[in-house]
Amino acid sequence: MELTKRQERIVEIVKKEGPITGRQIAEQLSLIRATLRPDLTLLTMAGILEARPRVGYYFTGKTPVNFAAQAVQRIKVGDVKSVPAVIRENATVYDAVVTMFLEDIGTLFVVKEGGYLEGVISRKDLLKTAMGGSDLHKMPIGVIMTRMPNLITTTPEEPVILAAKKLTSREVDALPVVRAVTAPDGKEELEVVGRITKTTITRLFVELGEGK
Ligand code: ADP
Question: What is the CA radius of gyration of the chain?
Answer without folding.
Answer: 26
